[in-house]
């Protein structure tokens, strides 16, 4: 019985960690679409970019946390430049053009990754002071770094809540998401809001890639793995809803984690079955914008 309870607790902790990580990625995606109306299928590439930033800068500095700080700054700058150079020209255009542009970015990011880092699979060592396990009973333990990741994700979620709901910038973001034309008439600089939102979305995805790098492989194509799941999270939670993204990410994470244990033959379909059921029940997602 103790072994069963310990196994269930480990799976629950894994699901929470995975769900919070998905939330970081999907919240940036839903913010970009909810405020700017841009379908950005290159979002997974930003996640991959963050992981490779962490790998490269850690190799140069020998300090993972310095790599995270510098990588986050670089990611926000890159996001701002991409919005200024490319995405700001697509706000009034058809979604097909947005998809084509962002697909082109996927190819560019993959080629740049291949040129500068190569096609090998890499790994990052967990920082020494976080590299230990917490006992769960007499024979089981759980890596502390995964708990640390969950705690960091919770802090970022709290920070997002304060930013969006308790600051002047957050009020401008909400106004832009509700009615950008009226907000601009009332003096809100929508161009600045769009750039800020896009940079924030890129930064969140890259940050998720950076903190997850020591717990997983840094490998080619890793962005596509999270992109599809992130879109499912956005669809289930409701486009433009950050809290919908949090709820949906946890639902998907628990379904995927426990489905792999108890229903391995259909585990790969559970995510899409849940999405189909939600779309039949609430086509706009569980939480509307």
What do these coordinates show?
It is a single chain. Helix 3 packs antiparallel against helix 7 (190-212), helix 8 (222-237) crosses helix 9 and helix 9 runs antiparallel to helix 10. It contains ten helices and two strands, in the order H-H-H-H-E-E-H-H-H-H-H-H. The longest helix is centred in the first third of the chain and has 35 residues, at 2-36. With 289 residues, the protein is mainly alpha-helical. The chain is globular.
Query: Looking across the biggest beta sheet, what order are the strands in?
Result: 1-2
How much strand content do the residues show? Answer: under 5%
Number of helices: 10
Total DSSP E strands:
2
Unreliable residue runs: none
Tell me the structural class.
mainly alpha
């Amino acid at each position: 019985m103790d072994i069963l309870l310990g196994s269930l607790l480990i799976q629950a902790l894994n699901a929470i960690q995975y769900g919070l990580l998905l939330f970081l990625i999907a919240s940036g995606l839903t913010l970009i679409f909810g405020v700017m109306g841009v379908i950005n299928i290159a979002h997974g590439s930003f996640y991959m970019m963050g992981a490779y930033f962490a790998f490269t800068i850690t190799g140069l500095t020998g300090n993972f946390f310095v790599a995270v700080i510098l990588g986050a700054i670089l990611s926000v700058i890159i996001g701002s430049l991409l919005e200024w150079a490319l995405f700001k020209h697509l706000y009034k255009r058809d979604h097909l053009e947005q998809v084509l542009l962002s697909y082109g970015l996927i190819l560019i990011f993959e080629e740049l990754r291949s040129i500068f880092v190569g096609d090998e699979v890499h790994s990052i060592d967990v920082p020494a002071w976080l590299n230990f396990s917490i006992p769960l009973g007499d024979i089981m333990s759980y890596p502390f770094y995964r708990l640390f990741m969950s705690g960091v994700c919770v802090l970022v979620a709290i920070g997002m809540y304060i930013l969006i709901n308790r600051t002047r910038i957050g009020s401008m973001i909400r106004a832009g998401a509700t009615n950008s034309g009226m907000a601009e008439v009332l003096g809100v600089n929508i161009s600045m809001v769009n750039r800020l939102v896009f940079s924030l979305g890129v930064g969140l995805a890259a940050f998720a890639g950076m903190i997850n790098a020591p717990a997983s492989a840094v490998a080619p194509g890793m962005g596509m793995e999270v992109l599809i799941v992130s879109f499912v999270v956005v669809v289930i939670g409701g486009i433009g809803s950050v809290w919908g993204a949090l709820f949906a990410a946890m639902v998907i994470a628990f379904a995927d984690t426990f489905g792999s244990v108890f229903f391995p033959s259909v585990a790969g379909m559970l995510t899409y079955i849940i999405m189909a059921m939600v779309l039949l029940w609430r086509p706009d997602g569980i939480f509307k914008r």
